[in-house]
Specification:
- By secondary structure, the chain is of the alpha/beta class.
- It has two domains: 3-123 and 156-184, 3-Layer(aba) Sandwich (Rossmann fold), CATH 3.40.50; 125-154, no CATH class.
- The protein has nine helices and seven strands.
- The protein has a seven-stranded mixed β-sheet with strand order 2-1-3-4-5-6-7, sandwiched between helices.
- Helix 1 (3-17) runs parallel beside helix 2 (34-49).
- The protein is globular, with a radius of gyration of 17 Å.
Length: 185
Amino acid sequence: MLLTDVTAKELEILKEALPHATRIGVLWSPAMASHALALQAVETTREKLGVQVHMVPARTTEDFDSAFAAMARERLDAVLIVSSLLTRAQHTLLGELTLKHRLPAMFGTRDNVEAGGLMSYAPDLHDLTRRAATYIDKILKGAKPADLPVEQAAKFQLVVNLRTAKALGLDLSPMLLARADEVIE
């Protein structure tokens, strides 16, 4: 999964969902080497969309509360959570913090949306698992892993939590809701 492409697309969808948003927080982890490239993609996309982004680092779970408090003090319109093992593992805490601080949030996993996040855009993990099984089958039948092509995720899912949207007083466009693969009501 190319985090750079996915993160840029997440920012685009977040801006589409919240067209009046001009100040967006980006929660990222300095401990993740891949996040540096993702932040570059966010910067490029930010320029195209004409929004300001406020980079907010969080290395550990203990950093989340102060990071969200800082974003709330800055009166940011929304937050993009750059996906990582930490943000996926702490989906319940992050869902609670987005609601507590009234920050509509875009996540990289469906679990975060089920826990109260506004939406997620991510590769379809079931599709990736099926494709991985195909590779395993080829290897078990004698194919050399070095000879197999590298594939990227091709199927993505947009999940929207309509309960969270209502709790935050957001009126999401019918076009966005129609594009969603799943709407949690």
